[in-house]
Amino acid sequence: MNARVRSGIAAPAGVFGRATIAAMNFGKVLVPLVGIVLIAGAWRSYGWSGVALVVGAMVMFMLLHFNRAIQVLKRAANRPIGTVASAVMLNAKLKPKANLLHVVALTRAIGELRSPQDTQPEIFRWTDAGGSWVDATFVNGKLTEWNLVRPEPTEEAAAIEADAPASDAVKPGATDALRPPV
């Protein structure tokens, strides 16, 4: 079955035509409506003091979100584009429907854009020092899928790793430290 993915939900091809809105974001309509209803309810119950309280709470809410976005971008500005400390850990921490700001906060770096600019879906890549990378696909700013790619180890690196002693191995002469006291 041929399917196109919109906002993480697969739908049969042809359901989303040119005349319909492909991905309706109810938050863009619902949040202002809730704000208007709250202001109207505050006016009806408490008059101007109620309106002042509700508007003050809404402004505080917006300032908190703005401050978080600025802090995330400020941290990301100090790191190279598309880098992450560990691609494997990033892969483990990613969750479906996470927004791009949350992923940038996890990686503390802006991802390297792999898709054409201003097109949907957006594909970003984060690479670690070992050569592993995570490609994340965002549709309308929400994470829909991601995949981890790890490079194949070379024969030389495998030989060095096989010869290296394990970090938890007991060192020669240290066996006395492991014996219980008599």
Short descriptors:
43% helix, two-stranded antiparallel ribbon, Beta-lactamase Inhibitory Protein, Chain:B, domain 1, alpha+beta, 182 residues
List the helices and strands and how they pair.
Elements: E1 3-6, E2 9-12, H1 27-46, H2 48-77, H3 87-93, H4 100-107, E3 112-113, E4 122-127, E5 133-139, E6 142-149, H5 155-163, H6 175-178
Helix pairs in contact: 1-2, 2-4
Which whole number gives the mean pLDDT? 80
The N- to C-terminal Cα distance equals: 73 Å
The CATH class name of the domain at 87-149 reads Alpha Beta
Helix content: 40-55%
Largest sheet: 4 strands, antiparallel
CATH hierarchy: architecture of the domain at 87-149:
2-Layer Sandwich
Strand content: 15-25%
Question: Helix count?
Answer: 6
Rg on CA atoms, Å: 26 Å
How many DSSP-defined strands? Answer: 6
> And the CATH topology of the domain at 87-149?
Beta-lactamase Inhibitory Protein, Chain:B, domain 1
Q: Per the principal axes of the C-alpha atoms, what is the gross shape?
A: elongated
Low-pLDDT ranges: 1-23
Order of helices and strands: EEHHHHEEEEHH
Strand-pairing-aware structural class: alpha+beta
For the largest beta sheet, what order do the strands appear in spatially? 3-4-5-6
Structure in words:
It is built from six helices and six strands, in the order E-E-H-H-H-H-E-E-E-E-H-H. It has helices spanning 27-46, 48-77, 87-93, 100-107, 155-163, 175-178, and strands at 3-6, 9-12, 112-113, 122-127, 133-139, 142-149. The protein is elongated and about 80 Å long. Residues 1-23 have low confidence and may be disordered.
